[in-house]
Amino acid sequence: MPAQRKRKAEASTTVDENCPAVAMFRQYQLELDTKHDKHERLVKLSRDVTIESKRTIFLLQRLTGSSPDIKILEEALEKLKAIENTKLLSIAKELDQEDPYKFLRAYSPGLQEYIEAVSFYHYLKNKKLVTLEEVQKDLTFKSTCSSVDGIDNELSQLTTQKVENGNSEKTKIPDTQCKVICNESEMDKELREVQVHVPPTEYFLGLADLTGELMRLAVGSVGKGDLDTPFQVRDFLQLMQSGFVSFGNCGREIGRKLSTLRQSLQKVETACYTLQVRGSEIPKHMLVDVLSSGPSDYGSNFDNDMAANDD
Q1: What is the 3-state secondary structure (H, E, C) of 238-254?
Q2: Which residues form a coiled coil (predicted)?
Q3: C-alpha span between 267 and 162 (Å, rounded)
Q4: Which of 263, 266, 270, 287 is deepest in the core (most CB within 10 A)?
C-alpha cells in the first residue's frame, strides 16, 4: 500500500513548463529529434542515389569499343542529371547550414556510388578521370526551398495539450524555440547556394570503385571483338594505381579499396598478356571464357577445350 500511494503521488505531480531547466531540456529534445530525423532522411536519400547510380552504371556497361554509342551516353547523362536535380538536391537542402561531416556517414554510400557512375561516364566519353572540382560543381545548386522540413509540424508538436482536472490547456512554447524556428523559416525564403560537400576521401573512394567497372569493361569488350580496349584500360589502371600508392598515411577504407584496385589491375594485365602472347592460338569465340577463368587455369582450360573439340 505505501508503494502504491507513492506511485500515485509521483503520477500526480506536474511539470512546470516555465521552469528554466525544463525549457532547456525541451530545447535539447528538439535538437536531438531534429538531428535524428534529418539523419534518417539522408540515409533514405542516399539509398535512392545508390540504386539510381547502379542503374546508370549497368547502362554504361553496354558500351564497348573505341567509339561508344552516343545515344547510350546521352541517356546516361540524363540519368545522372536526374539524380543530381532530385535526390542529391534534396541532400544538399538537408545539409544547408549544417556541418556536413556530422552527417557524412549517412549519405557517404550514395555519394561514392554517384562518383563511381560519373567517373565511369567521363572515362567512356573522354578517356580521362573526372576531377574533384567538376564533381563539386555539379553538386552545387541554387535553391529557395526550406532546408528544414516540417517547421509547422515542429511548432504544433511544441504546442501540446494537457488535461488537468478536466480542463484542457496548452503548454507554453519557450520563446527561444519559437525564435529559432521562425528565423530559419524566414531565412529559407531567400535564394542561396546549397551543395553536397564532397570530401577528398569520398572522391578517392568513389574512384577506387571505378576500377572494378573498368575491369568488367576490359573483359566484356573482348567478347564483342574489341581487342584494343583491354590494353587502354590496363594503361589507365596502372596510372591510377601509381597515383593511389603515392598516398602517405591513408585510412582503412582507402587501403581496402587499394587492394581491390590491385586485384582488378592484375586481372586486366593477365588478360592483356593472354591476348598478346596466346591470342593467335585461341579462337576468338573462346577468348571470353579463357579470360573469365582464373589466371592459373588459362593453360589447362584452353588445352581441355581444344582436346574436346578434337574429339
Answers
A1: HHHHHHHHCCCCCCHHH
A2: none
A3: 68
A4: 287
Confidence of residue 293 (pLDDT cuts 50, 70, 90): low
Q: What is the pTM of this model?
A: 0.72
Q: What is the torsion angle, in degrees rounded to the nearest 10, for the CA atoms of residue 180, residue 34, residue 112 and residue 246? A: 70
Fold identical between 17-198 and 199-311?
Answer: yes
Strands (E), 107-260: 140-143, 161-164, 167-170, 192-195
Rounded CA separation 14/172 (Å): 14
pLDDT tens for each residue of 117-142: 999 999 999 989 999 999 999 999 98
8 A C-beta contact, residue 76 and residue 56: yes
Helices (H), strands (E): how many in the chain? 13, 4
Which residues contribute to the annotated binding site for Mg(2+)?
116, 213
Per-residue cell: 289: 571464357
What number does CATH give the domain 17-198?
1.20.58.190
- Domain boundaries 199-311, corresponding CATH code: 1.20.58.200
Cα gap 49→184, rounded to integer Å: 27
From CA 311, how far away is CA 297, in angstroms rounded?
21
Q: Which of 121, 289, 92 is nearest to 213 (CA)?
A: 121
Q: What is the DSSP string of 91-117?
A: HHHHTTTS-GGGSHHHHHHHHHHHHHH
- Hey, what's the torsion of the CAs at 89, 90, 92, 97, to 10 degrees? 140
Question: Cα separation of 83 and 114, whole Å?
Answer: 9
Could you list the residues known to form a binding site, using ranges.
Answer: 116, 213
How much is the CA Rg of the chain, to the nearest whole Å? 29
Q: Where are the domains of the chain?
A: 17-198, 199-311
